[in-house]
Each structure stands twice: as C-alpha cells, then as structure tokens.
Amino acid sequence: MHVFCDFDGTISVGDTTDQVLTRFADPEWEFIEQQWLRGLIGSAECMRRQIALIHVEPHDLDVFLDTVAIDPGFPNFLTACKAWDVPVTVVSDGVAHFIRRILNRHDICDLPIIANVLAHHPGAEGAAYSISQPFAEPTCQTGSGVCKCAVVEAVDSTIYIGDGRSDFCVSDKADIVFAKDKLADHCRRQGIPFIPFDTFTDLLPRITSILSNQAQSYGARAQSRIA
Asked: What's the predicted TM-score (pTM) here?
C-alpha cells in the first residue's frame, strides 16, 4: 500500500500558491485563474503564467511561507503510516519549493514531493521566477503540470487523499480515496466511492483500520502459503 496526498488545502491550511500570488504577484494572476476555471487553458499553462508574475526576493518569499499553517493532525498521520511501514508521497500541482519550505518549518523533512519545480532568476529583465514541469505528461487530459494519474497508476495498491480540482481525474484511479470539499462533491456527482474527512485527526482512525486490516490479510495469506 502506498499513500499519495495532495498538499494545498489538504495538508496546508488554504491554497499556498494562491496565498503567494495574492501577496506577491501582479493582479493579472486572477484573470489567468479565471481562464483556467473556464477550461480555456490547462493548469500547467496557468501555473507557468502565474508564477512569472511573482515579484519578491527569495528571502522574503521564504519568510512568508514560514507563516503557512498545516493541518495539526498531519504529523500524527505520518507517524501512523510509518508504524505500518506504509510510504507517503506528496503529489501536488503546486510548487515543490513552497511545499518543502512549509513542511521543513514543521519538522517534516523526509517526505518525497512530486510537484512543479521553481527557479529564481536574479537580475532578470523579465520574469523573476519560472517553473519547470518534469512530471507533466503529453497525454494528460487536464493539461496539468503534474499528471497525478500517471503517478498513482505507476504503483499497485494506493490510497489517495485530496480536496480540490487537481484531484478530480485521479480520484477514480486509486483503490481508496479520502476526500473533502470540492473533491468530495466531485466524487458524489460521479459516483466514485470515497471516505469523507475534514481533518487528518478524524481521518486517522479510518486509515489505521484500513492498514490494520491489510496487514492481517497479508499475514493470513503468508500463513496459508507456509501451510
């Protein structure tokens, strides 16, 4: 079993990228956001154009990121997964630097992160920042910078945890889905089985039960092979 977890609005309190754009980007970022919401552009293009509008020194950006809160129950969730020897990977259509900085601030330093990669261009006449998208796929149906479907489908037996639009297409690819907010609404509309949650604190007993049952099932199968 492998757990994949969205970041913005799932682990973090609120959408980190939107918070950064609101604080440091030209107002044009909101027009670009509306183009994406209307389906006129894919999320990969949306993110590239928005990141190029950010104007802030890296130090000040990091100071701002250090103010971003995460779900208080997330560390205990990680502890439980580690106890069951279940890997957890953050998969996000956001920005890896934002995610890593926030998690490190909360003493979470060793999680694999799959996300867009930020670059700073000091002294550039044009955009001060850009992103590369090494996890994009030409066949991605939503034009995402990170094709979450490709990431999840590469692994057998998966749990996915998410909350928003970037999680819609992957929600029918995982074996078990935990969903809240817009993702929960999407799953209901599409008839996709899911487990609702609000915080990692109320999610923890459910996932502990799932991992316990899986371990017992694995043990029973191993015992039958020995017999």
From this structure: 0.91
